[in-house]
Amino acid sequence: MPCCFHAERPDTFRDLDPGCQFEVSADRLVEFPNGSGKHWCDFHLPFADSDGTLSTKQAWTVEKADQFLQKIYKYVASASKSDRVVDLTGVVFPASETQPLPLTSDRLFHAVCLYRAVFGGSVNFRHTKFLLNIDFSEATFIQTAYFDDIEAHGLFVARNVEFVSDAYFQRAEFHENALFSRSNFQNAAYFSGAQFSKMANFTRSNFSGSAWFDHARFYGNSGFSGNLLDANNRGLSNVPADQLTEQAQAAAFGHVWFRNAKFYQDIDFSNRSFSGYTDFNSTTYQVAPNFHGSLMNQDTSFLDSKFFDRSGERAARSYRTLKLAMEGHRAWDEAGRFFAYELESRRRVRSMPRIIKLFSVLYELGSNYGLSPGRPIGCLLLFALLFSGVYENSGLPKIVNFDHALAFSIEQYVRPFAVWTSSYKDGDLISSIWKFIASLQSLLGIGLATLFILALRRRFRMG
Ligand SMILES: [Zn+2]
């Protein structure tokens, strides 16, 4: 009669047998619950059944727990030595009073399957090198999980994992895909300084406590999309937060820090709920980030962040979403910045008429899309001087020195198009070509003054 544990291994380790992987003699198996006919090895014996009935494992002595761990160490060492997959699927690790030890003495793992494992005590994988794939999907970490400074050279699969306590992945290096989708971080999650060389997938993962991704590097595509979607996959971002279904709220960020993080590829925050302080300060984006359908907290900051993508319609839509979110929070400066990026990106769209592109360029040059009220004033002064230089050598009557030229130049701002009026003094003495040039300056003056007023209004507008 073997141990009754049975679980088809995940795709990463599909070749492994679905039954109990440990050789335990029948007389060492434990029946649980009593009278159920289900017999378990020490490794798979759960803490409790689905009704909450506790097993004997819950009351194991420190010695018994230590014996268990020694057996695990031996099993891991022997599997590693023979290059077999370390199959710890479904193992229920007892709670430990002592400082957590690493599962290997040399902090080196080849392939390891921890699918549906349960860790009753805290776990220490700090500085461990995972040379091949590791999969601990559906695992449960009841106490703190330490994965700081790990190196994962194969796939790192952690789907649907329950982190009941804090999870530490600081400075972790993921050289292959890191898959954390639908995992639940019930407490703080620390990914500060982590490096994701390939895909970082946190789709529909939930962060109830604070989440730290500051100084992280995302070299591949990253997914943090949530599930603010109804049954027909339509966005719910317009639904008030307190009316969202539990399921929609379940993939949320609490307080989150991405400060100084760098995103080198696509980054997807779509349909994600940000329910607390959200810090994107000093972040860098090579590709415009996707926040479509997300619910952003009012306490969201993008201070000193850099966005390099102006590649066309897709980027324009991404910036438009951010602009609308910031406008919703009455954050006009931020909204103005994203509006500028939107226009610049849209200019790259081929089908856009040239004349619109020209005006977009002029708008950028004149006032940086309304973000720089000082720029049109500077341009006004500069053009006044430039035109003065032109008028000085024009041979126009009564302009014999620069002072006269400057006066004539400023006059084109103050009395636009006056050179055409019949009452204009000496009007007859000015040829049409010079009247035309003076009118151009007047037009410039009106345009720049308008840009100045618009920029000023944008800056000081009230919600
Ligand atoms: Zn077993």
Structure description:
Strand 1 and strand 2 (39-40) form a beta hairpin. The protein folds into 3 domains: 1-123 and 130-147 and 156-164, no CATH class; 180-237 and 247-303, no CATH class; 374-460. Strands 5-9-13-17-21-25-29-33-35 form a 9-stranded parallel sheet, with no helix packed on it. An 8-stranded parallel sheet has the order 3-6-10-14-18-22-26-30. Helix 6 (374-392) packs across helix 7, helix 6 packs antiparallel against helix 8 (432-460) and helix 7 crosses helix 8 (432-460). The chain is an alpha/beta fold. The N and C termini lie far apart (73 Å). It is built from 8 helices and 35 strands. The mean pLDDT is 88. The structure holds zinc ion.
Brief overview, please?
This protein has 463 residues and is α/β, with parallel strands linked by helices. Helices cover 28% and strands 15% of the residues.
Oligomer: single chain
Order of the strands making up the biggest sheet: 5-9-13-17-21-25-29-33-35
Provide the structure class: alpha/beta
Number of strands: 35
As a percent range, the share of helical residues equals: 25-40%
Shape: rod-shaped
Number of domains: 3
What key attributes describe this structure?
single chain; alpha/beta; 3 domains; 9-stranded parallel β-sheet; 8-stranded parallel β-sheet; binds zinc ion
List the helices and strands and how they pair.
Blueprint: E1 30-31, E2 39-40, H1 62-81, E3 86-87, E4 92-93, E5 108-109, E6 112-113, E7 118-119, E8 123-124, E9 129-130, E10 134-135, E11 140-141, E12 145-146, E13 151-152, E14 156-157, E15 162-163, E16 167-168, E17 173-174, E18 178-179, E19 184-185, E20 189-190, E21 195-196, E22 200-201, E23 206-207, E24 211-212, E25 217-218, E26 222-223, H2 246-249, E27 252-253, E28 256-257, E29 262-263, E30 267-268, E31 273-274, E32 278-279, E33 284-285, E34 300-301, E35 306-307, H3 313-328, H4 332-346, H5 354-367, H6 374-392, H7 402-414, H8 432-460
Parallel strand pairs: 3-6, 4-7, 5-9, 6-10, 7-11, 8-12, 9-13, 10-14, 11-15, 12-16, 13-17, 14-18, 15-19, 16-20, 17-21, 18-22, 19-23, 20-24, 21-25, 22-26, 24-28, 25-29, 26-30, 27-31, 28-32, 29-33, 32-34, 33-35
Antiparallel strand pairs: 1-2
The chain binds zinc ion.
The site of zinc ion has 7 residues, from loops.
